[in-house]
């Protein structure tokens, strides 16, 4: 058989050329145009559609946040709640009564009144309890104690000493079950406040809820476990109330589960932000809570040290080894420990939300036989796998599962993803490998540009604004100041990656498809590049999931959702296994289907965390003037840019083919410009009467003496702020008070240092007396096998003081008062060369103390130059809750958008500073 003759391609070409030659030139051009249109119709996207989609994305995220965090239950009266229910009306009554006492810190008359109120209310509960229920009320008085058991967070290198504390303790248990006394659930909060606020939120709201819970629980019977309500004092001075109860009260040995109620703002939903290590408590809560609110991401941030705070739950975990739950109100975080922690800012339904959840939880756990009987041990690799991963969905449903299941699921997704990518690259060869690398580059560029644009604003704001943090009173300003530049940067960086990817694919396609027309080739390359940019989001979230899974981070479920859901949508609607099929434009349905679940689960949490961070800026500077003014802005900018890059990576990948880019750029510039104009013009003020700037005013009396001699005094008013920014606006109201501001006068308050502040020595002679100045006297200095020095300290009328011991010279110490040992030997260690002793107590606390100091073998004492006071042996600050005439006058003149800020290490109105030199 003769072979079949192949068509002569050259002859075909020459024939077509001959036909074309017979046509006029215009016809040839028209034919080429028609042919090009037939081969490819370039895909165009409407700017309006995609800008609308971006707006829908933002609105949906805000709607999720609103429903998840802002929707509260209807407050109930006693009649509506019933004898066995929870009534916000009654809880609010308790809150108002406590807040009306004004600030009630430890040692104050107001705290005594608050204690008597709580005691009287618990006695009423006892009288009206159900006949099957026994209510025991105890006014527990702690004479003294010390706490050096805390080794994490704010308490590293500290010894906390306390005296003359009083707590109200209520135990509710069934009358006819002797076993109930052996197994108890603790519900705890604190009555005391800092000196600067009446503490409606922190934590009179918690006490009001607990009193109403105790009333409701006392009307139920059939319990198998006791419930103990601890109304403690001393929490604000270093968690002393919880520590004294756990270490000294006889009922503490029966506690199997601890629940702490706290407030880091006022009102809103009280969410669980810490739990564990035993997951039983959170699982029980999830089963019965009517309005569940819990986010493990808050626990991860708290444990990482990003949030510089602590609660009584740390005592229950570290000292007592108890599992449990830690709740907190977090709305209006900027008012924390300021005068604006007031009942007017409490939203209706806030206490009802916590009360109903807690009542259901207590009834469930008090009637359970499965309550943990053994105290937990330190968390290790084995126990970590049994910890709970938890989060709520829209405040209506709660998801709880063990870390072991999370590890298994996440490992599975990681391995499958790696396998899919490896298979894809091996099948695609060099073009696929190059595209993968450039996809990663696009992600990197997206992050670099987004962070750069946002950080640029963070650095510029302090230079052009009256306040370096102009968003504290209006947190939504963050959207215009930081989110708009972050979106612009993310789009810019991703588009550069897209262009590089197009260039690479064009070179690869030219070698591979020489016979394809340039128009078809260009469209195919653009569409393929778009798909790779979309898939770069998978790579981003895969890397985050791998890191989270490796370190067993509970909030890795967010990365899991943002990887699996979009990948499933892409695989279901877009993916193809054959090369014959040309790439098509990404469908809107792919984006909507892939993003719906992640947005539903995580967007509200991201928005809430942004609000929490902006609220923290008001108290950012622990050592005023020690950090640059832009630091707070950098924190906010980095977080906002991170959220933008994480959540918009898929959406922005749709913007590179056509119109939306210009619209997004214009909208970003417009939003940023309008917001900045509002800030610069003062239309959007940085602070308000309800969200004030922290400005502390302290009358300081400095003295340094040796061997009890009468020391010289240096008296002045010190004014400083924990909020970033200079005190220029505040000083305008104090023109006639003689203040000078700057970094020329550094004030060492022992627990912290004021590196930038304002000071005035004008009219500071009155309001204090020399008899109130504390004394430090070296009584005995002997050398045996080791050098030992005995020192006596008289704090005069102060029952709140802080002492720093030079750990470069001193190895250990012990403290005695009234011939009773308060702190035993075994207190080595410190931070930055100092060990801090923090004392607080009631009116009957001792004021004379004997210290025994054990010198280090490496002490430089013998090499010190006589009279050198740069490195004292001891530094002491004593605090008095009193306002001198000058300090009071300054407070009155300060603008209303200023507020004092109190914490355990901050001085009160009058502070005495003294020290013992090394060459005493």
Beta-strand share of residues: 15-25%
How many separate domains make up the residues?
A: 3
The count of helical stretches stands at 22
Shape: globular
Helix content estimate: 40-55%
**Unreliable runs:** 1-41, 705-709
CATH domain fold name of the largest domain? Aminopeptidase
What is the CATH domain class of the largest domain?
Answer: Alpha Beta
Tell me the total number of β-strands.
Answer: 26
How many strands, what sense, and barrel or not for the largest sheet?
15 strands, mixed
Structural class: alpha+beta
* Terminus-to-terminus distance: 120 Å
Radius of gyration: 33 Å
| Chain-averaged pLDDT | 90
CATH homolog superfamily of the largest domain: Zn peptidases
CATH architectural group of the largest domain: 3-Layer(aba) Sandwich
Structure explained in plain terms:
This is Vacuolar membrane protease. Keywords: Endoplasmic reticulum, Glycoprotein, Hydrolase, Membrane, Metal-binding, Metalloprotease, Protease, Transmembrane, Transmembrane helix, Vacuole, Zinc. Residues 175-361 form the Peptidase M28 domain. Its main location: endoplasmic reticulum. Pfam families: Peptidase_M28. With 920 residues, the chain is of the alpha+beta class. The protein folds into three domains: 78-145 and 156-366, 3-Layer(aba) Sandwich (Aminopeptidase), CATH 3.40.630; 410-576 and 584-681, no CATH class; 692-858 and 869-919, no CATH class. It is 43% helix and 19% strand. It contains 22 helices and 26 strands. The strands form five sheets. The chain has a 15-stranded mixed sheet that branches. A five-stranded antiparallel sheet has the order 17-18-23-20-21, with no helix packed on it. A hairpin with a 3-residue loop joins β17 (775-783) and β18 (787-794). The chain is globular, with a radius of gyration of 33 Å. 50% of the residues are buried. The model is unreliable at 1-41 and 705-709 (pLDDT under 50).
């Amino acid at each position: 058989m003769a072979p079949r003759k192949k068509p002569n391609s050259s002859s075909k070409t020459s024939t077509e050329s001959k036909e074309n030659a017979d046509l006029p030139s215009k016809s040839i051009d028209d034919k080429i145009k028609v042919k090009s249109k037939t081969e490819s119709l370039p895909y165009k996207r409407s700017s309006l559609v995609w800008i609308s989609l971006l707006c829908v994305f933002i609105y949906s995220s805000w709607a999720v946040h609103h429903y998840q965090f802002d929707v509260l239950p209807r407050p109930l009266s006693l009649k509506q709640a019933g004898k066995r229910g929870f009534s916000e009306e009654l809880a609010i009554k308790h809150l108002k009564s406590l807040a009306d006492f004004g600030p009630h810190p430890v040692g104050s008359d107001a705290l005594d009144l608050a204690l008597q109120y709580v005691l009287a209310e618990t006695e009423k509960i006892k009288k009206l309890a159900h006949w099957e229920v026994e209510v025991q009320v105890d006014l527990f008085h702690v004479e003294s104690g010390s706490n050096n058991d805390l080794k994490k967070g704010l308490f590293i290198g500290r010894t906390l000493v306390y005296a003359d504390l009083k707590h109200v303790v209520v135990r509710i248990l069934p009358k006819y079950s002797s076993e109930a006394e052996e197994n108890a659930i603790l519900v705890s909060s604190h009555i005391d406040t800092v000196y600067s606020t009446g503490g409606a939120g922190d934590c009179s709201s918690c006490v009001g809820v607990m009193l109403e819970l105790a009333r409701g629980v006392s009307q139920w019977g059939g319990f198998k476990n006791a419930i103990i309500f601890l109304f403690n004092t001393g929490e604000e001075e270093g968690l002393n109330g919880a520590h004294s109860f756990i270490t000294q009260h006889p009922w503490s040995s029966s506690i199997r589960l601890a629940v702490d109620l706290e407030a880091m703002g006022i009102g809103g939903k009280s969410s669980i932000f810490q739990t564990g290590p035993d997951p039983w408590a959170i699982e029980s809560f999830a089963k019965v809570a009517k309005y569940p609110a819990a986010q493990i991401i808050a626990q991860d941030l708290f444990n990482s040290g990003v949030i510089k705070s602590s609660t009584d739950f740390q005592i229950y975990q570290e000292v007592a080894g108890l599992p449990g739950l830690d709740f907190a109100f977090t709305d209006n975080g900027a008012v924390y420990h300021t005068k604006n922690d007031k009942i007017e800012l409490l939203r209706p339904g806030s206490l009802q939300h916590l009360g109903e959840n807690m009542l259901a939880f207590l009834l469930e756990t008090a009637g359970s036989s499965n309550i943990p009987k053994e105290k937990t041990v330190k968390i290790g690799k084995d126990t970590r796998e049994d910890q709970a991963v938890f989060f709520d969905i829209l405040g209506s449903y709660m998801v709880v599962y063990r870390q072991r299941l999370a590890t298994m699921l996440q490992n599975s997704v990681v391995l499958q993803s790696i396998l899919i990518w490896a298979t894809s690259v091996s099948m695609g060869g060099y073009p696929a490998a190059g595209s993968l690398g450039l996809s990663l580059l696009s992600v990197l560029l997206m992050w670099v540009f987004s962070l750069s644009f946002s950080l640029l604003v963070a650095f510029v704001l302090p230079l052009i604004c009256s306040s370096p943090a102009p968003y504290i009173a209006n947190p939504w300003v963050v959207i215009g100041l930081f989110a708009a530049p972050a979106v612009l940067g993310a789009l810019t960086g991703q588009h550069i990656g897209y262009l590089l990817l197009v260039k690479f694919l064009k070179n690869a396609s030219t070698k591979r498809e020489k016979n394809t027309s340039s128009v078809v080739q260009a469209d195919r390359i653009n569409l393929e590049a778009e798909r790779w940019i979309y898939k770069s989001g998978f790579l981003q979230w895969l890397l985050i999931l791998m890191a989270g899974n490796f370190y067993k981070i509970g909030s890795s479920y967010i990365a899991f959702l943002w990887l699996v859901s979009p990948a499933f949508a892409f695989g279901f609607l877009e993916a193809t296994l054959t090369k014959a099929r040309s790439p098509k434009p990404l469908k809107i349905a792919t984006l909507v289907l892939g993003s719906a679940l992640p947005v539903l689960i995580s967007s509200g949490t991201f928005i809430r965390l942004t609000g929490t961070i902006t609220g923290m800026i008001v108290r950012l500077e622990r050592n005023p003037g020690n950090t640059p003014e832009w630091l707070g802005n950098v924190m906010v900018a980095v977080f906002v840019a991170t959220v933008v890059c994480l959540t918009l990576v898929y959406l922005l990948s749709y913007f590179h083919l056509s119109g939306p880019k210009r619209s997004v750029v214009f909208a970003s510039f417009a939003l940023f410009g309008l917001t900045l104009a509002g800030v610069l013009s003062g239309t959007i003020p940085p602070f308000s009467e309800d969200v004030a700037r922290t400005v502390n005013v302290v009358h300081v009396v400095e003295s340094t003496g040796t061997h009890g001699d009468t020391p010289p005094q240096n008296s002045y008013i010190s004014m400083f702020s924990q909020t970033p920014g200079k005190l220029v606006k505040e000083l305008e109201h104090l023109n006639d008070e003689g203040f000078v501001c700057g970094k020329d006068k550094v004030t060492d308050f022992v627990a912290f240092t004021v590196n930038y502040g304002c000071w005035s020595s004008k009219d500071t002679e009155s309001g204090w007396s020399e008899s109130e100045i504390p004394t430090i006297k070296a009584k005995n200095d002997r050398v045996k096998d080791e050098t030992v020095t005995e020192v006596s300290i008289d704090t005069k009328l102060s029952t709140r003081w802080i002492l720093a011991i030079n750990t470069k010279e001193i190895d250990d110490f012990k403290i005695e008062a009234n011939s009773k040992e308060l702190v035993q030997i075994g207190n080595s260690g410190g931070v930055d060369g100092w060990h801090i002793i923090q004392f607080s107590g009631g009116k009957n606390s001792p004021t004379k103390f004997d210290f025994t100091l054990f010198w280090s073998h490496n002490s430089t004492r013998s090499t010190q130059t006589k009279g050198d006071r740069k490195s004292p042996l001891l530094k002491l600050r004593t605090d008095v809750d009193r306002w001198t005439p000058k300090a009071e006058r300054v407070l009155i003149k300060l603008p209303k958008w200023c507020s004092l800020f109190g914490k355990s290490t901050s001085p009160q109105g009058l502070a005495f500073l003294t020290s013992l030199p090394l060459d005493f």
